[in-house]
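Friendly challenge for the regulars: who can give me the structure tokens for this chain first? No prize, just bragging rights.
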Amino acid sequence: MADTLKNVIAQSLECPVCLNTFTDPKILSCSHTYCKACLENLLGCNGNDQMLRCPVCRAETQVPNQEVSKLPANLALKSLIEDMNNQYQFCSNQCKSEDKPQAVVYCQDCGRYFCFTCHNLHSQWPVFISHEVLAMSEIVSGKVSVRRYRKCRKHPKEDEECFCSNCRRFACFRCVVMEHTNEGHRVIEAAVYESSHMKSIEDLKSKADKKRSCFQKYVDFIDEQKERVNNVQKQCTYDINKAFEESVRQLTEKKEILIGEVKGMTEGVEKELDEMKKSAQEHITHLTTIADVVTNKTKIPLDMDALAAHDTLCQGLQKALKQEDPDYKQPRQSSKKGKRISFKRNIGMNEEALGKIAIAVAKTIALPTKDSMYAMVSTPDCKMAVCCWTGGVEIFSADGQHQQQVFEDVNIRGVGFLSNDRYVLLDYSNNITLYTPEYTKLNIMFETLSDDEGGFGNLTVDGDDQIYVSYRIAEKIQIFSPAGGKAIREIPCNGYIPYQITNYNDYLITGSDDTIRLIDKQGVVKYQLTKSWDYLIAAVSQWNTILIANVKNDVGLVSIDEYTNKLKHVQNLVTDYEIEKNDRGCWYILQQYRSGEIAFCTPDRLYIFH
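First reply, four minutes later:
Bragging rights claimed.
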């Protein structure tokens, strides 16, 4: 009876997954228990899912952070297993010894433990010679597992020799008669089921091996593709490094050539200036020497020789003093040649070409009407339209030729073009008028602010054909649809006056004396550039960069620089070019022809830089 109880208890200590005695048993929320390692394997089959499904009842248990170790341990079962492992196994044969001796082997076929004496007898019986016998030391160490006979729990003396396929249970013959004879129960021998089950397992294992082999080939194929991609990466990296080194070599050569060109161009100017300087310094030395000799004589010369020498020196000094004062025009003219030299970087073009040395040469055109320019814009046909408040728009080609005059009877403050080449004019009263490309006035009305309400107005048009009008007194910008009517929106100019506005992609560029601001269409200032005591005018280049003219109005000089869309300096294009000063103060306009020439306009003159 004790052996039977032990077998029943031993069967209860087996994990349903690995069929071995539980190791570190963990309880699921459904109360079923499994080895920790078995649960980790099951969880691993679900990928990254934190839900673990019980293999017996299919109930789900959440595993926090996929850590099975955090599941509760079956402490009672763990303690029972430890107690069972710590107890000695005694001989279960009908041993004639008074005290049950400790077992040294276990016969898998007999299902019995034998002491040393019984083991010797058992091994001598011919019918038992082929039995599988396990040493207790190997069982205790865990090297081998004991295959236990199934004993019926209701009838402990009976083996479970049958298997009910419908109930999925092993049963003894008595249980089959009492519980598994109803219709629908299919009962077979346990050995037949085991044989079939083992065959199914072998089939599954074979299929699993084939599937594993299939996926292993797939993994190997992926490794091959990775290797090919890696080879591509290595080759591209090699090619890039090679191209980079070649580009660096070419750029270095180009750099040296450009530096040589600049040096050659400027050395002549420097030589001219050095000669002027040398001549002036020699005159200074001459004056100093004679003056020192004459004025250092503290005594009046008395004899004839001394008087004669003194008179000669005084005459020489008087002659030197009669020389005209230095002429600043000559060094200024020489320096102009040097200051017109600039480096033109290839922005938006072939970067590898680095750039070229350019000499800023401007063609100067006197405007037909003196002191009348108010606005300027590039036309769709690559010309430049200069607007005059006295009336009309003067059209100039890129080479400075005056093409024609249009809108003679309109006093214009601003001009722009819609995408269909229609003209948008802003007159002296801040009224917007649309004209066809053939100069026919369209009957479309706009409700702008009057000159008294808004103050001096300026105009620009964006890529979506929205019309922007800025006002100096109102300190805001109104946006109009080309369909006319009221402004569809307003942009406040908080704390500054928008003297000039220019459309730039999704932004506006506003100019206010010494400050250029890049604002979004809601009026938020994104970037700002300030140069105190100078007057700044901005325009958009053909390469989508920003051109800014820096005018020193008091001395009549203009410099033009190129900036990024964040108002970071890129390069200088024109340095201190002399322009005619005007009486209207700081009123200038900067634009660029679509063919690349830069147009800078004062109230009286148009300068076209090539």
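Residues 192-331 form one domain. The longest strand covers residues 569-578. Your move, everyone else.
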